[in-house]
Write a structure and sequence with these properties.
Largest sheet: 4 strands, antiparallel
Radius of gyration: 15 Å
CATH superfamily: Jelly Rolls
CATH architecture: Sandwich
Strand content: 25-35%
CATH class: Mainly Beta
Order of helices and strands: HEEEEEEHEEHH
Strand order of the largest sheet: 1-8-3-6
């Protein structure tokens, strides 16, 4: 799990109080967050689309990797402990084993998205 790897690399957890905006939609950013404990809310255009509490969930990586503005707002719903990677690309260059782990996580996300798209298109046929 990615949190175990971060602990082994001596990356420190940071604590954020409930209500703290971690990422603001449409803002630039290079930092990436990994959830250790707590729950975060993800919203787009002011509408909550997900609540996430799974240890090891990564967010902010797409903006950091692609140099694009943030696609969603992420707010701490409860007090949270997160690992914050200020410069993801530099961190991954120095820690290739984590780069491979991140690639696997992102590949699983793409796979899940593909399944959803395929199911949606299937139902549109009828």
């Amino acid at each position: 799990m990615i949190t175990t790897q971060l602990e082994l690399l001596d990356v420190q957890e940071e604590t954020f109080e409930a209500g703290t905006i971690l990422i603001e939609e449409n803002s630039p950013g290079t930092n990436t967050f990994v959830l250790s404990t707590g729950e975060v809310s993800i919203s787009i255009n002011g509408k909550e689309i997900a609540l996430v509490s799974e240890n090891g969930t990564i967010f902010g990586e797409m903006s950091a990797l692609l140099g694009k503005s943030r696609g969603a707002t992420v707010t701490a719903s409860t007090d949270c402990k997160l690992y914050v990677l200020d410069d993801l690309l530099t961190f991954l260059r120095k820690n290739p084993e984590l780069a491979i782990l991140l690639l696997k996580i992102m590949a699983r996300r793409v796979d899940a998205s593909n399944v959803q798209l395929t199911e949606k298109k299937w139902w549109q046929i009828f």
